[in-house]
Amino acid sequence: MDELTERRSALVDRLTSRGTLTDPAWRAAMLKVPRHAFLPETVWGEDTAAADGRLTTVVRSHPDWIRWAYDDVSVITQVDDGTPAFPDGRGDRATSSVSQPSLVAEMLQALDVEDGTSVLEIGTATGYNCALLCERSGSENVTSVELDPVLAKQAAANLRLIGYKPHLVVGDGALGVPERAPFDRILATVAARDIPKAWIAQTRPGGVVVTPWATGFATTALLRLVVGEDGTAYGRVLGDAPFMWLRGQRVVPGELRDHVDETAEGVEEFRAGLDSMPVCDADPAGGLALTVGALVPGLSLTRFHATDGSGEASVYFYDRRGSWVLIEYTPGADAYEAYRFGPRDLCAEIEHAVRAWWGAGRPRRDRMGLTVTTEGQRVWIDDPDHELLPPRSGQGWS
Ligand SMILES: C[S@@+](CC[C@H](N)C(=O)[O-])C[C@H]1O[C@@H](n2cnc3c(N)ncnc32)[C@H](O)[C@@H]1O
User: Fold this and answer.
1) In this model, does residue 62 exceed pLDDT 80?
2) Which has the least CB within 10 A, 101, 190, 277, 344?
3) Is 99 among the residues known to form the active site?
4) Average pLDDT value over all residues in the chain
5) Are strands 119-122 and 167-170 parallel, antiparallel or unpaired?
């Protein structure tokens, strides 16, 4: 066995012994498809030396390059939409990657594919995941769409070199690929806040859509939706799925100070009843974070702890569209000094979401699910009839 095959086989063994990779057919596919062949000459990793949050280049001759190819890690393959923010090639933001193998395995297994199942993948990136789909389902049954033409071209070359011939499309995956629909399965390898209606419309009744669902607040959940005869899709949260966004649904960029100006005219002082700590400290798998994210669209959070040991904290909630609230948390208080600005009453919206979650019995995230219809999406607990309250009318960002 050559060194690369050995590394690949060791990775597959690790995923199997951890209980992540359970399906023998996917195991065979992951053993066969060479992940390193999909990595570009230059990839990016955290700049640990500078420790400034930037992403630095790692070239093929660096030992990390091949190590990452067969470690259970995602590998960043593009930064800043292809134009690195710094002249030395360092970047600010990962915009494409080869996904983490354990997550790839989890998503492919959730997709429930057999020989001949027709699949649409959203987000071709390097083509690695697409190659796995071709291996399992047959190239002629696989369609994959990538928005970035440079990445799409490279993916086509990578796939061709190894001998896979899926149908590749350059375009906005949020629109699906209508000319190849209907599909038995749709797999998104990018996160959606609003699950695109086209995905549901282009999936056959009884078909499955697996997608990361990111509200933008604290947690990204993996969803498995089954499409019904009436074109409505229902499904549960399976676990974590940290993914980059569909380009059209990206979070408005910027730091706290780009969105919060406490000196602005019209800032209102008030007393807040909301204890912000349970929301700040919410465990991603615990259900509260997903509820708040789903019911308070666009929410971001920044907290500063006092350094005097008092336990006090300044908590900013903001929506990046002109509304914010600052709550000055003091341990043991039952009301807090607070300031708010903008058209949305974020404090009330968060309280409303927290109450909805308490009222539902404080469910963990794995009891939560989503219904997607042509009118929109609704969050529920345990079954689609037990909906969490939607945001109050007039609130939300779209
Ligand atoms: C995490 S990567 C996909 C991982 C990949 N499937 C793999 O094999 O590991 C996400 C990709 O989605 C692409 N993308 C983002 N928005 C998109 C959109 N609206 N339509 C199609 N692709 C999109 C990005 O350019 C990026 O290449």
Assistant:
1) yes
2) 277
3) yes
4) 94
5) unpaired
Ligand 1 atom nearest to CA at 126? 8
pLDDT at 135 over 50: yes
How far away, in angstroms, is 148 Cα from ligand 1 center? 8
Distance CA 111, CA 225 (A): 10
Asked whether 97 lines ligand 1 (CB < 6 A), one says yes
The reported pTM is 0.94
Read off the pLDDT band of 51 (50, 70, 90): confident
How remote is the CA of residue 330 from the centroid of ligand 1, in Å? 43
Round to whole Å and give the CA distance between 228 and 245. 26
Query: If you write DSSP's letter for every residue of 97-165 in order, what string do you get?
Result: EEPPHHHHHHHHHHH---TT--EEEE--TTSHHHHHHHHHH-GGGEEEEES-HHHHHHHHHHHHHHT--
* CA angle, residues 138, 139, 142, in degrees to nearest 5: 95
Domains identified in the chain and CATH numbers? 3-36+99-249 (3.40.50.150), 256-359 (3.30.160)
pLDDT > 90? residue 344: yes
pLDDT cut 70: percent of the chain above it:
97
